[in-house]
Design a protein that fits this description.
25% helix; 3-stranded antiparallel beta sheet; alpha+beta
Length: 76
C-alpha cells in the first residue's frame, strides 16, 4: 500500500484524475485535509503537503482559487 498526498484547487477533477491513473490501483481512503475546508493560502496548503508522509508531487500546478489538501492510499 502506498500513501499519496497533494494539493489542488479542484478536488473533484483531481480525484477523477487519480482514479483514472492506471498506475494507482485500488484507490481508497480519500481524505480532505483541514476538515474539508480550503487553506487560507496556497503556501499553507503546500506546507501541509510537504509535511505529509509518502508520495506527493511537489509544487502543484499554477491555479487560482481556494487550495485544498487531500490524501489517499493505493496499490502499485
Amino acid at each position: 500500500m502506498t500513501h499519496y498526498s497533494g494539493i489542488t484547487s479542484d478536488l473533484a477533477r483531481r480525484k477523477k484524475e487519480h482514479q483514472d491513473d492506471r498506475t494507482k490501483k485500488n484507490m481508497r481512503n480519500w481524505r480532505v485535509a483541514n476538515d474539508g475546508k480550503p487553506f487560507s493560502s496556497r503556501a499553507l496548503a503546500q506546507a501541509w503537503e510537504n509535511s505529509q508522509p509518502g508520495e506527493h508531487y511537489p509544487g502543484g500546478a499554477p491555479a487560482t482559487g481556494p487550495w485544498y489538501g487531500y490524501s489517499f492510499d493505493y496499490d502499485k
